[in-house]
Amino acid sequence: MPRVVKQKDIRQVEVLDQALALFLEYGYDNVSLNDLLAVSGTSKGAFYHYFPSKEALVTALAERSAAEAFDRLKPVFEQAGANALERLNAGLAASYEVKMAMGAPEQLAAMASLLKPHNQALFDQIITIWEDLFRPVLTEVIAQGVYEGVFDTFDPEGVGDMIQGFAASMRKTLVGTLNAPDPTSRQEILDVCVKRLKLYGIATDRILGLPDGSTVVLDRKQVEAMIALLSPQPPDGSAT
């Protein structure tokens, strides 16, 4: 029977899917190149043809995930008939729903080891992929708000960068708290995250020249849902 030769793009997608499944099950640092080769049935030479390294594969996963989220969220940020604040809030609210639907909390938990010092460069690269993709949309919304008189800032792109920086900082805070050496109860994690989100919301309002409470932030119930997916455990934080 003749061997079936798949197109490179199709095979790359398959390898990405198989690698993501491994990362979700075992965690990024616990998956070796040999594990990736075994699960994908790919030779080392073929793997390097698709991805120069394990890090390059993770970068490709981040690019794919960011592109999928962008395709879903861009129409929300650009909705017609809404003012800039309404568009911004709709986009921020929708980003939570999209990320939950895409399994972002589980993926974040699987990639938690990227926060370790030896993986910092790769983590920063992943954050940059997301920020570069969404920066033009955020900049356009904020610039439109300035034009409408809804926002008051002299640097729309800079404000967009700050909003994205808050999101990146929140991810680090959440994963770092969950992976602290000393056991932390889910309630304590929840309290820390809700307090930090309130701070970021107020900071966003003030750099946009808005009254406190104008921009949406995740509520306690939404944060609790994220924590449950990131680290399934009893409310008291004890291991099951």
TrEMBL record:
Identify one Pfam family in the record.
TetR_N
Query: What name appears for this protein in its UniProt entry?
Result: DNA-binding transcriptional regulator, AcrR family
The GO terms this record gives for MF are:
DNA-binding transcription factor activity; transcription cis-regulatory region binding
- Enumerate the PANTHER family for this protein: HTH-TYPE TRANSCRIPTIONAL REGULATOR BETI, HTH-TYPE TRANSCRIPTIONAL REGULATOR RUTR
Question: What does the record list as coiled-coil region(s)?
Answer: none
Q: Does the keyword Phosphoprotein apply?
A: no
Gene source species: Mycolicibacterium rutilum
Q: Which residues form the HTH tetR-type domain?
A: 9-69
This protein's UniProt keywords? DNA-binding, Transcription, Transcription regulation
Q: Which residues bind DNA?
A: 32-51
Q: Would you say which domain of life the source belongs to? A: Bacteria
